[in-house]
Amino acid sequence: MNKRIIILGAGESGTGAALLAKAKGYDVFVSDFGRINETNKEKLTQAEIPFEEGKHTEDLIFNADKIIKSPGIAPKVEIVQKALAKNIPVIDELEFAFGFTKGKIIAITGTNGKSTTTMLTYHLLKEAGLSVGLGGNIGKSMAGQLVNLDFDWWVLECSSFQIDGFADFKPHIGILLNITPDHLDRYDYKVENYVASKFSLFKNQDKEDYALLYTEDKLINANLSKHRFSSKLFELKFEDIPSEGAYANPSGIIINLNGRKNTFAQDLLTIKGKHNQTNAMASILTAKLAKVKNEKISESLPKFKSIQHRLESVGNIHGIEFVNDSKATNVDAVYYALDAFTKPIIWIVGGVDKGNDYSQLDAVSTNVKAIICLGKDNEKIKEYFKSRCPIIEETQSMQDAVKMGYKLSKDREVVLLSPACASFDLFKNYEDRGNQFRLAFQLLEREIELKKISQSC
Predict the structure, then answer these.
(1) What CATH number does residue 443 fall under?
(2) Which of 177, 201, 205, 457 has the fewest CB neighbours in a 10 Å radius?
């Protein structure tokens, strides 16, 4: 009899895992407590995979040999707790997919910057002509792709939720960019539990593997000695020069590897800010470990386009740059965004507060010229910044926020959407918020152009 696998959650990762399990001969059943979107329903139906939605039927679930759950389902959810009590293994889609690839894994985690680093690493390897796939917490599921093809390399963005579902998963190159308190409701409100989750990315590595860590991050530095690395450790730094690893200075990104120094000029980078230099260090060092030549890296870096909703320039009107950083849903991400600009900033901020401590922004908010609060409850933001910023406006309309930003700004200034908050008060998600920012910019640009035409007639 075929082994039975139950999939909890029929999103991108769950559906991908179901398709791969079916292709490998497992008895598969999918259960989603919410509603399954029509596209995924069609995929499951075509693959003849039975499913249910709007409920979890225990009789159909607890006869499983293994459960693959969506990263969004907390371990404390009743159905998961009952499965664990019955000694049914509960794993992540990436853990399952790992068993079916012959490729080498590059796994990237961190509270912030992992999407940019994942995309830049993928870009450098792809441009170099390597056989490389992209997955994890970004793009298409790894499991779903493995139904039809495998790659020599996989570049995977890994959230802490996904890492928590790893048992045998072993990255050849593991990257930890930074750690700041986030999602603590999943970790008993203990930052040490969240830190342990991030560091466990490296638990299965051996001497043939590599661990890349930004060791000047406070929480990484404070916990480094508590964790044993069987892999070769490379440090990413600014202040000190590692004997092997990467560092950055005004001349560029420098890679120290195998006794050789490789320098990549700063003007090759298309991504802004000190945090993106950390991301670039990690990506370039990874490319070097994958045997990509310096010339190919230097050719590829200027071709990289920033990912959507992360310090994404959507356009320029009369010298005023409009920047979409909707993915910045916590204060730490906003710190990096504000620090990326020396120009005066009109800052659009707000949404569903996640217990933000805005004092963390004191050092970088001095160049904020005006604040536009975009959310249903802006009192916390207004109260903190009322004595720190001369202009504070508020609205619940993205179109109004963009127009306000334009009116408050002038040539060589920046209108920055960097919310520090979740988006669910006014928008479907951070992508919807960012897309509405881009649309509002386009409407404003068109309005100004039509006004110019009418005045010339």
Answers:
(1) 3.90.190.20
(2) 457
